[in-house]
Specification:
The complex is a heterodimer of chains A (about 525) and B (about 180). Chain A is of the alpha+beta class and about 525 residues long. In chain A, about 25% of the residues lie in helices and about 25% in strands. Chain A is globular and about 80 Å long. Chains A and B meet through helix 1, helix 2, strand 7 and helix 11 of A and helix 2, helix 3, helix 4, helix 5 and helix 6 of B.
Chain lengths: ~525, ~180
């Protein structure tokens, strides 16, 4: 029984974060950055005569542009005069559509600037050092926004602009960052309350934004003291926001069709996209309990709640759907998204979850076991949250661990491991994998690393195999995965009927104290194993 | 006082910005830690939010809404950091977790149980719970902060609470089963 949960949560959070202190060095570094950063101007801020003259320059012919702009830039970055106010203009589309290096205009200029910087003239160029390549390489400005904001304000004359993840990626190489221009002094009429998009109304029409690709690089010196420049830039195909009314209507129509098909018992699978890995050891690519509950009861009715959205810029939405069966005695609840799916545009999406992340399907409040495929579908099994396959980088081509944080643990632990063609224990790293389960069992039984009973026959998933229980006597660095030394282990060994592996090994091992409990969590996974023909 | 500092900072007085940030930054850091469950990502999120706050401060129309506005920037920065974490596929939890020790008093057990339950929540649910129960914002304020309808904010808090309750119930059942298993 849980009493007054909200109060408990509040007390726990306060206790947990009591004494939390933001590191002084990071705060100092943050202030160092903000001191050097110019503030964005207020939405209503006016445009100076100088800026208007830039706009004239921008509107000039391309032939005269380089010379004129060079003349302006030769005097440094112009400062705007807030004292000479004029009303904010209607957004003006830029006429320049691209250009080369900035603020230095050639490698010779950059080299000279680098030399001055190296000689101690650091203040003038400090902002050209502040580029976070880790972010920029992923097409994100990160905390290195100043080179971009200086460029956009100085060269494009955009008073208001923004970067957004949904606009960020268009198959440009690392170092290219995309920004969209926001109309000045205008609240975005389609997303007036959106925290990101409310202050960024489109500039071209009701939906489209002028969009610039800015490529930054260190053409002269590629180290932490090398100066960064805008290597090149161009105005590109405009990014567009989704009309929330349209998106909502399309999303709910798709969702309704999908839910009705599920109640009808046919045609639902073509109405939804799946998100999540589809590699070996990942979840089977299917919406769980698509047409029926886990006991096979058909759905009778459905309902949904909008959880979020439409969210700027695409109008992404998130829904919680509930499907009822057996006169409402069974309720299946799932989280679905309406989201952009590559070139297919906005689609209904089910997130399969990944590894130890919580799956998106509950039945009467309990997590529904997820079905996974291993060895190209030769073996399937089910695991319920909090258990699931380890993250991709923790897998090998012949090993898949199932792990998760058990209720009594402070950290995730491995519950069991699937092994394809395991090698013998001990010094078997270079040894070939035994040809069948019997041969592997003999080698294990003969090895001092594992002290246990003789192999016993076992049947799982309709397939006969061998079971070996014992104690781990020596640490093994390769071959059959067993740990810790002194712990207990259970092995299952099966011959496979063709396919990419000949033998499947399953190892469950833990320290003496927790082995029985780990076994309790592991056995439902073992019992769910099914073998399939290649 | 806050209003005067905000207005000064909006005019570009960095010392005023520092005076606004320093008394708030530890609390913001706590919010980020709870949402992201990763100290280093939380540091990055706070830094990103503060840099954005400085740049965008002139756009803040109502100085009285400074705290809500800062939290909004922080939540967005946390989302950015969360995306970054997902992109590089590292789900390593670097949150400080006290090891289970001999102290199995009610408070410690309760704390551990809540820690586990909280980890099971999705990021949206964690955000709702943290803003409501740690930062102390109302559903209306959270709605404005996240750009969602008030009803959605309320339902998000409700579902987060229910999800946590379900996780704790499951935890309790598992613990009881474990104890039974050990004593059998």
């Amino acid at each position: 029984m849980i009493d007054n949960l909200e109060r408990r949560v509040s007390v726990w959070m306060e206790d947990r974060e009591a004494g939390t202190h933001f590191p002084d060095r990071i705060l100092a570094a943050t202030f160092q950055q903000t001191r050097a950063l110019r503030q964005a101007r207020h939405l209503q801020r006016s445009v100076s005569p100088l800026l208007r003259s830039w706009r004239l320059l921008i509107a000039a012919s391309a032939a005269g542009m380089a010379v004129a702009l060079a003349g302006v830039l030769a005097g440094g970055v112009p400062q705007r005069d807030p004292g000479q106010a004029t009303p904010s203009p209607t957004p003006v589309q830029s006429v320049l559509t691209g250009g080369g290096m900035w603020p230095q205009r050639s490698l010779e200029e950059l080299r000279a600037a680098q030399q001055r910087f190296d000689a101690g003239e650091t203040l003038s160029y400090a902002w050209q050092r502040w580029v976070d390549w880790g972010q920029v390489a992923q097409n994100h400005p990160g905390n290195s926004g100043e080179i971009f904001s200086r460029f956009i304000e100085a060269v494009l004359g955009w008073e208001s602009f923004t970067w957004h993840e949904e606009f960020a990626h268009r198959d440009f190489d690392g170092g290219n960052v995309l920004f969209v221009r926001c109309a000045v002094g205008v609240v975005n009429p389609l997303y007036p309350d959106d925290p990101d998009g409310g202050a960024c109304a489109p500039t071209l029409d009701a939906l489209r934004y002028e969009t610039v690709r800015i490529h930054v690089a260190q053409p002269e010196r590629q180290d932490s003291n090398g100066l960064w420049v805008v290597a090149d830039w161009e105005l590109i195909e405009p990014a567009a926001q989704g009309d929330p009314a349209v998106v909502r209507a399309e999303a709910t129509a798709q969702l309704t069709r999908f839910l009705e098909a599920r109640v009808d018992g046919t045609g639902a699978d073509g109405l939804i996209d799946l998100r999540g890995g589809d590699g070996d050891g990942d979840a089977i690519q299917a919406v769980p309990l698509l047409y029926a509950t886990s006991t096979g009861a058909a759905y009778e009715r459905w309902e949904y709640d909008v959880v979020t959205g439409p969210v700027w810029p695409n109008g992404d939405m998130r829904f919680v759907v509930r499907l009822f069966a057996e006169d409402g005695a069974t309720v299946v609840e799932q989280v679905l998204s309406y989201d952009e799916v590559g070139a297919d545009g906005m689609r209904l999406v089910y997130d399969l979850g990944y590894g130890e992340t919580a799956p998106n399907t509950l039945e009467n409040g309990d997590f529904v076991p997820v079905e996974y495929a291993y060895l190209d579908g030769l073996v399937t099994f089910r695991a319920a949250y909090p258990l699931g396959p380890s993250q991709e980088e923790e897998r090998t081509s012949d090993w898949l661990a199932i792990s998760g944080q058990l209720p009594f643990d402070d950290a995730p632990r491995r519950i069991l491991a699937f092994m394809a063609d395991p090698r013998p224990i001990g010094p078997g790293c270079g040894a070939p994998a035994p040809a069948d389960a019997d041969a592997l069992a003999r080698s294990i039984a003969a090895d001092p690393s594992f002290a246990g009973a003789a192999p016993a026959a076992v049947t799982i998933g309709g397939r006969s195999g061998l079971q070996m229980d014992g104690v781990v006597a020596l640490r093994t660095s390769c071959g059959v995965l067993l740990e810790p030394v002194g712990g207990r282990a259970r092995l299952y060994l099966f011959d496979l009927p063709g396919g990419s592996a000949r033998v499947l090994g399953i190892a469950i091992s833990a320290d003496l104290d927790s082995f029985e409990t780990v076994l309790e969590w592991a056995m439902p996974i073992v019992d769910s194993i099914e073998f399939h023909t290649p | 006082m806050t209003r005067a500092l905000v207005e000064a900072a909006q005019r570009g007085e960095h010392s005023a910005f520092e005076a606004l940030v320093i008394p708030r930054v530890d609390r913001l850091f706590g919010v980020a830690r709870l949402i992201l469950r990763d100290v280093h990502l939380a540091e990055d999120a706070v830094q990103e939010a503060l840099i954005k706050a400085w740049r965008e401060l002139p756009k803040l129309r109502d100085a009285d809404r400074l705290d809500a506005w800062l939290h909004r920037l922080l939540v967005n920065a946390c989302a950015d950091q969360g995306r970054k974490r997902r992109r590089v596929s590292t789900e390593v939890d670097l949150a400080i977790v006290e090891p289970a020790g001999a102290d199995v008093t009610g408070r410690t057990a309760d704390r551990d149980q809540l820690e586990r339950g909280f980890r099971r929540l999705g990021e949206d649910q964690r955000v709702a719970m943290v803003l409501r129960h740690y930062a102390g914002f109302s559903a209306e304020e959270i709605a404005a902060m996240l750009g969602i309808p008030v009803g959605t904010a309320k339902s998000r808090i409700h579902y987060a609470t229910e999800a946590l309750r379900a996780a704790l119930d499951a935890d309790s059942r598992a613990s009881i089963a474990l104890i039974d298993g050990r004593t059998a």
